[in-house]
Amino acid sequence: MAMDSNFERLEQEVNRLVEVLNRLRQENADLKGQIGELEQKNQQAQSEIERLQQVEEAYREANQNREEVKGRIENLLQQIDGLEM
């Protein structure tokens, strides 16, 4: 009887370990899926950051050009004001 009892306990432990192993494998697969999703989102965010940096640079250049044109126009207006009529 004692041997049957020990064998049953061993079977129960092995079954429990198999269940734990299966659960851990599933959790591992789920986590790998989450990692893949997060890596994709991270790559999208990096692409968006690069695009925004390009937009920011274009804005800076346009603003600089606007300031240059403004200065040239002000210079022309001063020249016009300086003419005697």
Provide an overview of this structure.
The chain is mainly alpha-helical and 85 residues long. It contains one helix and no strands. The chain has one helix at 2-82. The protein is rod-shaped and about 125 Å long. The termini are far apart. The mean pLDDT is 94.
Question: Layout of SSEs?
Answer:
Elements: H1 2-82
Short recap of the structure:
By secondary structure, the chain is mainly alpha-helical. 95% of the residues lie in helices and 0% in strands. It has one helix at 2-82.
Provide the descriptors you would attach to this structure in a database record.
85 residues; mainly alpha
Helicity level, as a percent range? Answer: over 70%
Q: For the terminal residues, how far apart are their CA atoms?
A: 126 Å
| Beta-strand content | under 5%
Average pLDDT: 94
The Cα radius of gyration reads 36 Å
Task: Categorize the overall geometry.
Answer: rod-shaped
One letter per element, helices H and strands E, the order comes to H
Uncertain parts:
none
Number of strands: 0
Total count of helical runs of at least 4 residues: 1
Based on secondary structure, the structural category is mainly alpha
Taking the sheet with the most strands, its summary is:
none
